[in-house]
Design a protein that fits this description.
42% of the residues lie in helices and 24% in strands. By secondary structure, it is of the alpha/beta class. The chain folds into two domains: 119 residues, Response regulator (Rossmann fold), CATH 3.40.50; 94 residues, Winged helix-like DNA-binding domain superfamily/Winged helix DNA-binding domain (Arc Repressor Mutant, subunit A, Orthogonal Bundle).
């Protein structure tokens, strides 16, 4: 999954991003509302983590603007405000959940998982297609009962493809989802991960099809 973290406290942001990276997620970090708007206008994120008190304004204004654009990306608000009225106002503006500072990182990770499950309309994390079982939260792929070990980015690439079988993803789209703005890699890295994932999927009935000039698609054969 790819997250946008909007937080001006550098130490807290680093701690959150580090924990999310360990879970295999890609995190872009915005330290201001202007940066957040620039990021959100160019990349489709799976989840936003939004601080309220930012150097150039109130995060609630960003949330209201974001929802006015009809974007349904889940948003979890990070707030030091504990009054019920503050929480209610944020939920009314379109927040999916909130976490009060200071918070435990395991709780934040659990809330992220819960919000993402609700967004997908499921309480289960395991995806089953043909002879494959894939659990992105546990980071486990099984083919006909045999467990296949994948690296983090291989897992996230499979997660993108398996959640939309038959959909074509351009190389740029996959690059945006798998890497953050701080990663110094070229688009050719996508070809490397596609090649690795293809080898892992060889025993299954799923295959990654290359459509020249268009991108990649997960198909069943």
């Amino acid at each position: 999954m790819k997250f946008l973290l909007i937080e001006d406290n550098e130490d807290l942001a680093h701690a959150i991003a580090t924990r999310m990276n360990l879970d295999g997620h890609v995190v872009d970090h915005a330290i201001s509302l202007s940066d957040a708007k620039a990021f959100s206008e160019t990349v489709d994120y799976d989840l936003l983590l939004l601080d309220i008190m930012l150097p150039d304004g109130d995060g609630r204004d960003f949330l209201e603007h974001f929802r006015a654009l009809k974007k349904d990306t889940p948003v979890i608000v990070l707030t030091a405000r504990s009054q019920v009225s503050d929480r209610v106002s944020m939920l009314d503006l379109g927040a999916d959940d909130y976490v009060t500072k200071p918070f435990d990182h395991e709780e934040l990770q659990a809330r992220c998982r819960a919000v993402l499950r609700r967004k997908s309309g499921s309480t289960q994390t395991t995806v089953r297609i043909a002879d494959i079982e894939f659990d992105p939260v546990a980071g486990q792929l099984s083919i006909s009962g045999s467990v296949i070990k994948l690296r983090n980015r291989e897992l996230r690439l499979l997660e993108i493809l398996i959640n939309s079988p038959g959909k074509v993803f351009s190389k740029q789209k996959l690059f945006d989802r798998l890497f953050s703005y701080d990663d110094e890699v070229s688009e050719n890295a996508i070809e490397v991960y596609i090649g690795r994932l293809r080898k892992h999927l060889e025993p299954s009935t799923l295959t990654i099809t290359t459509l020249r000039g268009l991108g990649y698609r997960l198909d069943e054969h």
